[in-house]
UniProtKB/TrEMBL annotation:
Domain ABC transmembrane type-1: 38-319
Transmembrane stretches, start-end: 37-58, 70-89, 153-173, 179-199, 247-268, 274-300
Name the record gives this protein: ATP-binding cassette, subfamily B
Keywords: ATP-binding, Membrane, Nucleotide-binding, Transmembrane, Transmembrane helix
Organism: Mucilaginibacter mallensis
GO CC terms of this entry: plasma membrane
Subcellular location, record wording: Cell membrane
Bilayer topology annotation: Multi-pass membrane protein
Biological classification of the source: Bacteria, Pseudomonadati, Bacteroidota, Sphingobacteriia, Sphingobacteriales
Molecular function (Gene Ontology), one example: ABC-type oligopeptide transporter activity
Length: 588
């Protein structure tokens, strides 16, 4: 089944499932923080309760002690209030400390979860998305969520608790006045529910444009040599300028949206205070209310509307976090379209590898390989030749299961290749890519990448392994041998040397099937002869698949396949292959 991996083109159904699946994942991620969350919750509820008791004590003090001039009682209550406010300060500090830790740990776990997910996703995913945008999701979007968790969530809960308490107090002290005082709050809730989706959309657009800008930067940094060589700085500057402008205007849009809540909330809170004051004075004048109660009442109205005003800012932070979370969840909810299938029984006396009526296209609407069938036997050398774009690399990628066929089956050792665990499969199949990829480190570290066999070898033992595998001659081509430094961009060494490292890496894994995709295209003829000797001396059972444009590299092949227009045909001898190339059915 063709799966869509382009994060910027997910269907509505995928979006919905991703929010749900990811929410479940988020809960799993913070489940072990239950104790800390509970303690923070207790601290914030204590804080709210203490703050809520304040106005009641003040009102009582005015009515009971101030109006009767019993100043001793006033002093005692002032002392109680001071103790309560100090305890409130302590609980507030506790919750900030606890939640800061929870937020940072969540950020850490979340980034790890996304990174692990990225490691499991198939090549299709990386073909469809830009690295810069993915980096922005891992760094920027997760941080938005962390900000909400560490700074806003508990305030959010605390404010809601204070508001609820203040609301109950308002209704309890004077029911009718309470209804008047709370009426503007209902309008605020209505306004919030109408405007919130728009605010979230504005923030999502802004985060997307931050991702877009990051992708532009990454592309131009990756291609800086071509940009300088072709003097295309202006072109990239223009592209970056456009991405930056887009980011600027979406940031302004998001800023405007984010700031819409505060003034509206402030306006309605002021109206509420005015209403309470006017109605309260009227009630006092008709003897239905006391001054002390009005003071308490005004304080409770403040305790109801101040958190509401703060909720405006917190709600914005929540909307930003949710927009970030959507972008994170899109990645977390993706599943690899290369699952390991169960129950495959090996066919007896099977070839090492077999393509059975295989069809494949990178996209659903464009088939690249059409109904291909061939077998590769153990210990033989095969060559794939054919014009550029004919489908050689695609065939090799299917052999290594970088992709699955859209129809047909590929059998490895008589079993569906999809039934192998990835570790088992990569042990059996070595693939030297057209563009070798190196990691920052030494030649030794790069050769040992993904190979645990020699991890505990001393330098001497490892050098012996290299000699036994006939790789000593290649290593001599590096200035400091195994310790030669390599950077991930590979700029400190030549392209040919990069290919040699990839070659040694693959050979040392001792695979049953070794695929070389133009793996010797950038080395001189003498080194190429060296590589060819090493290939000849590989263990007898090793099968080799060589893709090459230089026909001398495939002279010794046992069988040659001609790959053109997505069809693979037996070429017979080298002369036949040359004839086919010359008459060349070109790529359609
Ligand atoms: N990632 C991809 N997404 C979509 N189409 C692709 C992708 N990679 C290759 N193709 C298309 O598949 C076809 C076969 O490409 P492939 O790389 O297999 O050819 P090739 O024979 O290896 O060419 P070369 O000799 O240049 O390496 C080409 O038409 C190419 O445009």
């Amino acid at each position: 089944m063709q799966m869509n991996y382009d994060l910027n083109k997910l269907s509505e159904k995928q979006e919905k499932t991703s929010t749900y699946t990811a929410l479940k994942k988020l809960i799993q991620l913070i489940a072990h923080e239950r104790k800390n969350l509970l303690m923070a919750l207790m601290a914030i509820l204590t804080n709210s309760t203490l703050n809520l008791l304040g106005p009641l004590i003040i009102g009582l003090t005015i009515d009971k002690y101030v109006q009767t001039k019993q100043y001793h009682g006033v002093l005692i209550n002032a002392g109680i209030l001071l103790a309560m406010y100090t305890a409130a300060l302590g609980s507030s500090y506790m919750q900030t400390k606890l939640m800061g830790g929870v937020g940072q740990r969540m950020l850490f776990t979340l980034r790890n979860a996304i990174f692990n997910k990225l490691q499991q996703l198939p090549v299709d995913f990386f073909n469809s998305n830009k690295a810069g945008d993915l980096i922005s999701r891992v760094n920027n979007d997760t941080d938005k969520l962390n900000q909400f968790f560490s700074q806003s969530l508990m305030q959010f809960i605390g404010n809601i608790a204070t508001m609820t308490g203040a609301g109950i107090a308002l209704l309890f002290i004077h029911y009718k006045l309470g209804v008047v005082a709370l009426a503007p709050g209902v309008l605020i809730l209505l306004f919030t529910s109408v405007v919130s989706p728009w605010v979230k959309r504005k923030n999502a657009t802004n985060l997307k444009s931050v991702g877009g800008m990051s992708a532009e930067i990454q592309e131009s940094l990756n291609n800086f040599k071509v940009i300088i060589a072709f003097n295309r700085r202006d072109y990239f500057r223009k592209r970056f300028d456009e991405a930056n402008k887009d980011n600027y205007s979406t940031a302004i849009g998001a800023g405007l949206a984010n700031n819409i809540f505060l003034p509206v909330y402030s306006f309605f809170s002021s109206i509420a205070q005015l209403l309470v004051l006017a109605c309260g004075i009227y009630l006092i004048s008709i003897g239905d209310f006391s001054i002390g109660l009005l003071v308490s009442y005004l304080s409770y109205a403040t305790l109801f509307y101040n958190p509401l005003r703060q909720l405006a800012a917190l709600w914005t932070s929540f909307q930003v976090a949710m927009a970030g979370w959507d972008r994170i969840s899109q990645i977390l909810s993706l599943e690899s379209n290369l699952p390991t299938v169960q129950n495959a029984l090996a066919e007896p006396e099977a070839s090492l590898l077999e393509f059975r009526n295989v069809h494949f296209g990178y996209t659903a609407d464009h088939e690249i390989l059409h109904n291909i069938s061939f077998k590769l036997e153990r210990g033989k050398t095969y060559a794939l030749v054919g014009p550029t774009g004919g489908g050689k690399t695609t065939t090799a990628s299917l052999i290594a299961r970088l992709y699955d066929p859209s129809r047909g089956t590929i059998l490895l050792d008589g079993k569906d290749i999809r039934s192998y665990d990835p570790l088992e499969r990569t042990k059996k199949i070595g693939f030297i890519l057209q563009e070798p990829f190196l990691f920052t480190g030494t030649v030794k570290e790069n050769i040992l990448y993904g190979n645990e066999l020699y991890l505990n070898h001393t330098s001497e033992q490892f050098e012996q392994v290299i000699t036994d595998a006939n790789l000593g001659g290649l290593l001599a081509l590096f200035e400091s041998g195994l310790e030669t430094k390599v950077s991930s961009s590979g700029d400190s060494i030549s392209l040919g040397q990069k290919q040699l490292i990839a070659f040694m890496r693959a050979v040392l894994r001792n695979p049953d099937l070794l695929i070389l995709d133009e793996a010797t295209a950038n080395v001189d003829t003498i080194t190429e002869k060296l590589l060819s000797d090493i290939l000849d001396k590989l263990p007898q059972h090793t099968t080799r698949v060589i893709i090459a444009h230089r026909l001398n590299t495939i002279e010794n092949a046992d069988e040659i396949f001609f790959v053109n227009s997505g069809e693979v045909t037996r070429a017979g001898s080298l002369d036949d292959a040359v004839n086919m190339l010359l008459q060349g059915k070109r790529v359609s």
